[in-house]
Amino acid sequence: MAIIDDFFGKNTVKSNKAKRMAPSATSSSTTTATNNNPPLKKQKLDNSNSKKIDVVKNENLSTNSLLSAEDILKTIQDADPSLLETDPESEKMNFFQLKAKQSANNNSNIGETMDIDSIPKGRENCLNGLTIVFTGVLPSLDRGQCEQLASRYGAKITKSISGKTSLVVIGTDAGPSKVKKIKSLGIKCIDQQGFIDLISKMPADGGSGDAAVKELAKKKDLERKVEEEIEEEIKKEQEEEKKQLKSQIKSTSSSSSSSSQAIPKTVVDKETQLWTVRHAPTEMKHICGNKGNVEMLYNWLSTWFNKPHNMTGSTIDDYKAVLISGPPGIGKTTAATLIAKKLGYDVIEKNASDFRSKKILNENLKVCLDNTSVAGYFHHSKLDPEEGVNEINNKRFVLLMDEVDGMSSGDNGGVAQLAQFCRTTKTPMILICNDKSLPKMRTLDKYCYDVGWRRPTSREMKSRLMSIAHREGLKLDPNLIDKLVAITHNDIRQIINIMSTVSRTQKSLNFDNLNQMQDSWEKEVSLKPFDVVAKFLSPNKYSINDKISLYFNDMDIIPLMIHENYRITKPSRINSNNKLSELKQLSKASDLISQSDLVNSQIRSGEQQWSLLPFHAIMSTIYPSFEIQGQITNRINFTSWLGQNSKKMKFDRIVQTLQYHTCTRTSTNNIDLRLDYVPFIKDKLLQPLLKRGSEGIEEILEIMDDYYLTKEDFDNILELSVHGSMKYEDLYKKIPTSVKSGFTRKYNSYVHPTMIYKTGDSVSSSTRRDKDMSIEDEEKDNGDNGDNEGDEDDVDLKKDSLIKEIKPKAIKNKPKATKSKPTTTKSKVRAKK
Amino acid sequence: MALWADKYRPKALAKLSYHDNITEELTRLADSGPNFPHLLVYGPSGAGKKTRIMSMLRRLYSASSVDNLKVDVKTFVTPSNRKLEFNVISSPCHLEITPSDMGNNDRVVIQDLLKEIGQTEALDFSGLFHITKKDNTLTDDESTTPQRKFKVVIINESEKLSRDAQAALRRTMEKFSATIRLILICESTSNIIDPIKSRTLGIRIGLPEKESIRTVFENILSNEFEAKKSFPEDWDDRCIVYDHIIEECDQNLRLGIMMLEAMYMNNDTINVQTPVVKPDWQLVIESLAKGVIKDRSVARLTTCRTILYELLSHAIPGKLLLEKLMFNFIKMIDDYSGIHHNNQVKMDIVDAAALFDERLTLGSKDIFHLEGFVTKVMVILETDISSQ
């Protein structure tokens, strides 16, 4: 499951959507762009080697001679100094309050937002070498747009101000700490207009400033590196091909296990291979990101057979199996296979396409793992005949279980069996899954070392992607990679697939044709409820259909989350700080939520009107959040309804049990028992202990037996009382522990009458005895209520004497003689039965 | 050592202390023998419905067999093959069930259990029983219990029966009328479908008069000599104490007796000023209402939610919460000085309560509606207070 954690990625997507909504603007801008600098583009397209930069530079020199960024910045007016003045109040406020205030100020400006395309086009790469910080709220551009703009022209954007920052674009309500830093470092500040001027004035490639030149050199470096890599790879590939040809001549048969490995063997089909397969990494350093994990895994695997694996420690070397978890498309399987292959292990891979039930795992895999007795045999038999025999690892293999979370209901007991394997295996095991938080993965937790695979960042992917593009002859704008990464949520596999798709029709991938194809590429991700709720509660401009689809991300939890959190905003629909209007707004929302419950019960109760779901979306989520949307002033909490509901169920069950136990005495129903009896019987049970200490125990036990209450019921009655926000003293805690333990001891010292006998409830002999007694007790109760003289039969008398005899003895704690007596009576009872 | 409420529960029709006309009617019904009708007994809780029914059964059969109670756990299998356990209180001559325990599966209980009982004729072994027990204490009158052909089935909380279950009941009532007599107990008949109402004899048992409650209290105290000492000597003073209790318990006799006993347990001497011991949930609701009237703000709503959740989760029904809250608001508004139009505000609050009461019935998540109500009340109060 992919998660949106890339805030800016989403932002750019959003702004691009806005852009696409005004098609006329887009088309005009693209035309201006092409008119502005067609020669530059041509150059770039045609030249892919290092020569290009020189050419571009020459071009620059001819058009914009000798201007550096500093020179141009000087021509731009400083930002209004008032922007640098901080509100002394705001320094005291916390983050949320500050945000709330900003949005309050913001509201007056809403509506004059500027389309990004109306900004005049700058020259290619013109902000190169500049490090820009955006702070505060710009009058007509939003943050995402600015950043997109700046990165498009090659600027580096940072969040915090430091000595390296070359300029700050400042808006209203800049953070006080940032303003302080700006002042102390004396950094050039410009406002929005200044920023736009800057873009239009700057020469291509950032002019002749030091920073720009350095940056350019860096980029050149990067490109050179990429090219070197490419060359190296091509060379290697050729060698590989030669080798392959040779080996194919030698032996036409190839082993079955090696066919599962990605690249080299099937060179003939190279044209038909997917790019993701064709360009799968063949070297450890080609794996993008997760360097630490890769290294750790490599070390673990290389020393696997020398380690004891006692499963107790916390380091990876203590475990026999490793569980790699992470979102799709970030190279988990690739890395695992590559590492195993590099170490010369043979890989047995099982994935979701295989049946992996307990039975099949036992049949097919157990022999491979459980080779204690025949270890030597396997050492010799499990050889890979293809590769060098002298390496010891070749005799060994790695079990790679891919897509573990894909073990479905069809794979009966598979996960449990796998966990079993992890414990006993004699070969290394690597397990791969997407989401290790799933309940069924929990069984594996104990036996596997968990390696979280992170999404590779765009920086980590850049050179690899560039080299792939180069080898495939696709022109890829380096500045575009960030954007691709954002669209796909760091899914490198998807980026390669996108490139592959584009290459079918186009020769280059750049900002202009990106937008047209973005819709189909934009990865569908399901959002976490927290993100969705944040979207709903903060001011937004989603259409109602967008909102409905947000609701359907998780239609069970989101309405509950909205209910939980609808009070944490400062509604922006009301301007004044009036308490009444705020309450009114809240009341509207809570009224709607309350109404939505009626819809919900139509859907989920006997009616099953599932077609009402969109209506429920509006009533429970969209309309209420529309009423109160505003700045979020507090943390978004997870819904407490679920917990409270299960608590309610628990207490309902407790009341039910109490009712069952006492029903013959009280003749009430559950509710009245809770309302009328529980508060007072609690008093009745506690007062004797409080007032008379251990002397009161007798009395309490009498009451409890009278009402057929067990010790458990006693505790439950105490637990059932409510206190709200009132002060109270816990009476039970005031009872001295000695009395309490005396009470428990006393309670356990004899068998109590019970009202209910459940068939097959429990099999222990003690409860069976209980049952016998309860029946007798009932018989005893029959004729007379309360007083038990007269009509009891023999057994009943004994029973009664049993109870009465132990009591005094238990108090006095007399030893042997007393103990023998009850047991004999008990055995008599049993004999009689 | 039972609670007073159980200890002094009348066992025979002759000993019932109020609603004499109903007692007389029940006596005649019990004596009517084979013509005993199906009954629908309704009335608020704490009025003495169950006490009267049990007294009547003791007359209809014999005290010894009616009080010969046991609890059985029966297992049922739902159409969806789930096994359900269900507790049945039974004596040789009657059965007591609470089908609402089963939630939505109550229909299965009604269908299976009643048919099972209906298809077997009741055998009364009470005569046999007396012989083996060599019982001398029983009077001649009781030992010659009239043999009844039918068993009585008491259905508790019948207003909570689902529509399906009630529909299942209506035919059963006629078909097995030879072997079964039903006594439905509920608080209000509004949820009972008409076909059932028409097949039963309705008996309403209202709350006792204040005077009767005083008599009951006095009666209890005259038996509890120890306790009587701590209550005021003077009859008038005692009456004032009783009246305090009666006011707090809303004439719910059971609750009243509980309060009386709690008062005695918590105080050594009781005088006119001694506060009445209220159940915990009432205190919490009162403090909640007080808080809302004093402070109408978003922050208060948050604490309200916590308290409401606590009450709901501790098995206090949402409907009762709403009702008590409303009455507390109405009572407290008069004491709160900031409100200009007392009557208008009260009407608005009752209006809102009615609205949310309906939603509580139709919906499933009580907290949503209670919170809606509290928020609404805040708006009503704030509107009035800030209006000038």
UniProtKB/TrEMBL annotation, chain A:
GO biological process: DNA repair; DNA strand elongation involved in DNA replication
Composition-biased stretches (Low complexity): 22-39, 246-261
Tree of life domain: Eukaryota
SUPFAM superfamilies: BRCT domain (SSF52113), P-loop containing nucleoside triphosphate hydrolases (SSF52540), post-AAA+ oligomerization domain-like (SSF48019)
Name the record gives this protein: Replication factor C subunit 1
Species assigned in the record: Pichia californica
GO CC term (a single one): DNA replication factor C complex
Classification via InterPro entries: AAA+_ATPase, ATPase_AAA_core, BRCT_dom, BRCT_dom_sf, DNA_pol3_clamp-load_cplx_C, DNA_replication_fac_RFC1_C, P-loop_NTPase, RFC1
Subcellular location: Nucleus
Automatic annotation (TrEMBL), chain B:
InterPro entries xref list: DNA_pol3_clamp-load_cplx_C (IPR008921), DNA_Rep/Repair_Clamp_Loader (IPR050238), P-loop_NTPase (IPR027417)
Domain of life: Eukaryota
Keyword annotations: DNA replication
Gene3D superfamilies attached to this UniProt entry: 1.10.8.60, 1.20.272.10, P-loop containing nucleotide triphosphate hydrolases (3.40.50.300)
Keyword Zinc included in the entry's annotation: no
CC annotations in GO: Ctf18 RFC-like complex; DNA replication factor C complex; Elg1 RFC-like complex; Rad17 RFC-like complex
UniProt record, GO biological process: DNA repair; DNA strand elongation involved in DNA replication
Keyword Cytoplasm: no
One Gene Ontology term of the molecular function aspect: DNA binding
Protein name: Replication factor C (RF-C) subunit
Taxonomic source organism: Pichia californica
Gene: RFC5
